[in-house]
Amino acid sequence: MSETTAAPTERAAKSFSGYWTLAGLALGLVLGWFADSWPADSHETALSLASFIGTLWLDGLKMTVIPLVVTLLVTGVAKSAEAARGGRIAARSVMWVIIVCTISAVFGAVAMLLLTHMFPLAQSTAEGLRQALVGVEQKATGPLPGVADFFKGVVPANVFAAASNGDVLPLVVFALLFALALTRIGEASRRNVVSLFEAIADALLVIIRWVLWIAPVGVFALAFAVGSEAGGAAFAGLGHYIALVSAVGILWMVLAAYPWGIVGGGRSPRLFVKAMIGPQAVAISTRSSLASLPAMLTAAQTLGVRPRVADVSLPLAVALFRSTGPAMNVAVAFYVAHWLGLHPSPPQMIAAIAVGAVMSYGAVSLPGEITFISSIAPIAMALGVPIAPLALLVAVEMVPDIFRTLGNVTFDVALASVVDRGASDGLET
Prior knowledge:
- The protein is built from 20 helices and no strands.
- The protein is an all-alpha fold.
- The relative contact order is 0.20.
């Protein structure tokens, strides 16, 4: 989610916009908190105006979710399949990307369910948010009927109806099958179709950038509505969210990335921990796996990874491997359900995990705010929860984003170590 190919000046501009959005969140919550002391007519007028503006901005984000899911998934999976044909080392790397990202999505769901059970959000805070969102988003996605109907609905009878109804899982299944089918047609035709979907995705991303450009105003309006209902408890709710989602990222890195790199890669624990200090320092300061690539290559050299393996697996990992993303993205959706007092059914949980995993297989490098919406909104829709809270949570994404990048960088180097160990058995590029 933090991976971006933007130039340093463009990245600085995005960070500055992020700070303005955070300021809009804080100001909106504070003004909403004290709005009860205003005259009744002024309070009602301000609240109605804020809900109207917030709803318009939220709709601007939502209108691109479904087409963006399809276009990004088709182009991402097609490019991943093409990369897998680049040699046995590349194919092995892509195989590990799919395996780890799937496990990551499952871990995120389980970890967040456990964390919210052990450290639940205060009921008063959750109730305040629910009341605040009544005027912004009236209802969540409808619940999935049952286990049998769930599995019957995985394959869409009408893909356009699925898109219209917001049925994300069957839409993801169709996009995945379509992307895989593209790998079986002629190269010229495949490139034409992928180029078309890339162009559509680029246009949609431009729209999202326009919508996010006024994010400080939209977030301010939504925050004012939340602050009016939840008061100061809204700050506690955001702090609770940051702590739990960040904890999922840390746990996934500690419990999976380090053991995988050490045991799977056959490296000394002390050496692996020492080698990761440099890349992790860059990751914390930049929140970019791309910027951490030189440090990761140095770490791979320290670990004894052969250059022919590191030169293939690490750039491929930076381009495709969002190992911490599925865990934290799914965790955000499950947290929103907890925040709103919703109890998704097992089929909905399965759908959300599946969408979180599949959407990460061919993830592309995008600015953090865009990825937050495009990656998590489909998961939330599959889980049956409203996506309005995401419009607020994107304002504080800078903190969890640090741990996303930290985990991704650690997993990237671990992947190089594991692939290098497999390459010693005779794999060639």
